Structure formats: C-alpha cells, structure tokens
Amino acid sequence: MTRDDDTDLLTIERALEGLRRAPDEAFKARLRTRLEHPPGTPRRTARGTPRHGLIAGTVALAIATTAAALVLGTSTSTPAFAVTENPSGTVTVTIRELVGVTGANAQLARLGVRARVASIQPGCTPAAGLIHVAPEARVLLAIITVEKNRDGVGLTINPRAIPPGDTLLLTARPIAPFKTPGPAFGLTAGLYRGAAPTCST
Amino acid sequence: MNMNSAAASAGRLAAARATDEIPADFELAVAAQSDPDAFLCLYERYFGRISGYVALRIADRAACEDVTSHVFMTALAKISSFRGRGPFAAWLFRIASNAVRDEQRRWRPANLSQEALEGIVAPQASTEQLVLARELGSRLRAAVAELPQDEQHLLALRYGAELGFQEVATILRIQPGAARMRAHRTLTDLRRRLPDDTR
User: Fold this and answer.
1) Which chain A residues have a beta carbon less than 8 Å from that of B62?
2) Is the pTM value of this prediction over 0.80?
3) Which residues in chain B are closer than 8 Å to A133, comparing Cβ atoms?
4) By C-alpha distance, which of B63, B46, B85 is closest to A47?
5) Would you call A23 and B48 a contact, using CB atoms and an 8 Å cutoff?
6) What is d(CA B188, CA B199) in angstroms, rounded to the nearest whole number?
7) In this predicted structure, what is the pLDDT of residue B9?
8) Could you say which residues from 11 to 50 on chain A have a Cβ atom under 8 Å away from some Cβ of chain B?
C-alpha cells in the first residue's frame, strides 16, 4: 500500500461522505406527523412504495443518474437522433450519438410535438429566459417512458400529456465511458417555458 | 421477550424519564410497543442515520424519501415483533437494507434529482466544474451500486449513517477489526471500479 493508494482511498471516503444530503427538515416533520397518525400497516405496491404525498417537494424528473451512464454502440448507419411517430400517437426519440439535434427538433416540430432536444456540452451557457416549470414527478412520468434498445436509448413521448403552454426539454450530455468502452451520455428531462438552451449542436 | 423483561424495560424507561437519563434504544423499543412517544424518540434518534444510509445507496431524492418513509412506517408496524435478541439498530438497519434492495430491484426510468437537472441547464449553474463534480458523484454511485449488497450495506452504514466501526461491527455481528478490514477492502474494490480520471 503506497502513499498514493492511501490518498486515493481517502479521496473516495470523502466523496462517499459527500453523497449524503443535508437532512430535509420539512420531510422529517411530515414523516413524523405520519408516524404520529399512522394510516395502518404500509403496503408496498407492485409499482413502488406508497408516496403519500411525501414527494410534494419533488419538482422535476429526469432520467436515471446511474442508468443514464448509457453506453452506446458506434454504428453510423442510422441517424444519431431518430424521431419516429407511433400508431398510438406517441413519438419515440431514439438517441445514438450526441450530434444531429437540429434535425430531431425539426422533425418534432413538424409532428407538432412540443418537445425539444438539446445536447449539453461542459461549459455550455444556456439561453437566458429559460423558465423551469415545476411539475410533480408523476406528471413527467405520464409524458415520457425510457428504454434502452439495440438502436440506442428510446424516449417515447406522449404529446397529449404535455401541459398546455409547456415544452418538454430533453437534454443529453457526454460523459466519460464507465468501464465499458464506447460513447456514453447522461439524460435529463423537464418541463420548461421559453427558449431551449443555445448550446445545442 | 417475555412479559417480565418487557415490564422491567418499561420500568427502566420510566425511571430514565424521571431522572433525565437518556434511555437506551432497547428500553425505547420495548416501550414503543405500547407508547407511541417512545417510538418518536427512536425516530428522532435514527432519522438522520437512516436517511443518510438510504441516500448513499439511492440517488434519487424522491425515492430516498419513499424508502426512508417505508423504513420507519414498517418499523412502527412491526415494533411489537422486536424481541431484543440483537441491538435495535441492527433490526432497524435490516429493515432499511431490505427496503433499499426492493427499491433497487425496480428500474425507475425517471429518477434524476432536481438539482442535477438544474446543474446542467440553470443559468446560474453552468460551470464546467459543477457538471464535472456531479459526474463524479454519478460515477461513484454507479460504482457503489455494482458492489455486492453486503458491501453496499457496510459502506452505507459507515459513510451514509456515519456509524463508527464499533457500531458497524455490532450491526453486522462481526469484530470491529473485521469491520475495518472489510471497509478497507471494499474501498479498494471501489477504487478499482472507478475510471482513473475520477480519482
């Protein structure tokens, strides 16, 4: 064990400690109230734990931090961003590489879908005037579903679920490959009003 | 736990209250079987540790709150089954570990936190450093998630719940030296899993 090894481990220890969050006192108080007046034995549903309004403070959803380290193939035989209209009225945006956003946005606009795609590069300065709308997570869950398929990452959008006046903004940013070789990117999604970031490619 | 020991514990709790002595977890857990206030004392004592434990293993804030809620609601519902055969902390963290594992089994397509989103697109948070710092956090979480459940449990007890090695050892029913050694081994494994440029 060298001094560098020890330093590495210390760095990792500090980083692990950094993953903790400051206690959320509002959440703590809400949960305490529930414990004082328990509704009965908690039941975990097939879909997940009962939320009981505890996520009221959650104002945006995005797509898996961990799962967002999606490693893609490098084939160039299909468009980097492909937009497909489904018979159900939904639209699937399949992302293979972080180029060609303009074409995807043009296709979304042609289909009348209030959704934009932006590729976010490190150091990018988003456009002024972008106003983040704060929906509950379930609102966004009703709008998009995500799956990784052989062509890349498919984000299926239900245009009818986008609230009037809002725009769904999907962002993708390059991240260093994690373990598996090949390009990787992180994805986020949110509802916005105003112009999309200017740093799209 | 028989009726006599329960009565004795309740008596010790009453005595502790009368003398301002801080009651032990065991006394509180026994008393909580009939006294809701005793459970709330345990809640206050363990909220930070449980939420820290959960936060180390689950990235999404809403999911963390779900799981933390589930842990305490389950503990409240099952407190009457606490037999005191082991420390209360071990019992509670076992509930937490199971809840985290259940959560991890589900893939939520939408679980990036609000602050991560804003870190990328918010006008005031567009520096490269901010993005890179969050990338490190993401990679670290991804690496932790790849560890075996037992090792995740250990790391979360040590660095999420901020327990000392003595407490970790008590919960894991191993010697403190063994807990320290396992933690070191797990950190070494974690370092191996992280790309060079993140260290």
Assistant:
1) 51, 55, 58, 137
2) no
3) none
4) B63
5) yes
6) 12
7) 54
8) 11-13, 15-21, 23-24, 27-28, 31-32, 34-36, 38, 40-42, 44, 48-50
